[in-house]
């Protein structure tokens, strides 16, 4: 799926945000809810107006899952299978929402990393996150 150079770029960006999963994840959720308010329906446990603690907690969980994907780029399917089952069979998240999340995450990365998040890195992350989305939606079929 990814070339050696793309894998290195994904890992390099992850190294820059590792340790900041909660804050990046909270910002990702806020951006997602602001730009795509219809996605709030999948986060009912956060309430209509989630507080900072809820956003940080769930944001951390989301980005920890991204970290699992980064560490298992060679076998995303196996690494993300439980998460795919959860989203398809329990949460029943509309698969069309994964690209929205991907888009918002890339905006968060670009806004924080600025010049460090090069065009090549953005392309590698886009390809990587698309692969993650594909794996997460495979269980819907």
Describe what this molecule looks like in 3D:
The protein is mainly alpha-helical and 141 residues long. It is 70% helix and 0% strand. The protein has helices at 4-17, 21-35, 52-71, 76-90, 98-113, 119-137. The longest helix has 20 residues, at 52-71.
Helix content: over 70%
Q: What share of residues are in beta strands?
A: under 5%
Structural class: mainly alpha
Overall shape: it is globular
Q: What is the total tally of β strands?
A: 0
The count of helical stretches stands at: 6
Low-confidence stretches: none
Ends distance: 21 Å
Mean pLDDT across all residues, rounded? 90
Run of helices and strands: HHHHHH
Main beta sheet strand tally, sense and closure: none
Q: Measured on Cα atoms, how large is the radius of gyration?
A: 14 Å
């Amino acid at each position: 799926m990814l070339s050696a150079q793309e894998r290195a770029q994904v890992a390099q960006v992850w190294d820059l945000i590792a340790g900041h999963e909660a804050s990046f994840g909270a910002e990702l959720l806020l951006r997602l809810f602001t730009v795509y308010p219809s996605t709030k329906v999948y986060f009912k446990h956060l309430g209509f107006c989630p507080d900072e603690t809820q956003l940080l907690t769930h944001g951390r969980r989301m980005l920890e899952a991204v970290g699992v994907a980064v560490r298992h780029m060679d076998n995303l399917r196996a690494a993300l299978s439980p998460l795919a089952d959860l989203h398809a069979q329990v949460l029943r998240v509309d698969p069309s929402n994964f690209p929205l999340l991907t888009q918002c995450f890339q905006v968060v990365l670009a806004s924080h990393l600025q010049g460090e998040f090069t065009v090549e890195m953005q392309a590698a992350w886009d390809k990587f996150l698309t692969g993650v989305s594909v794996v997460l939606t495979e269980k819907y079929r």
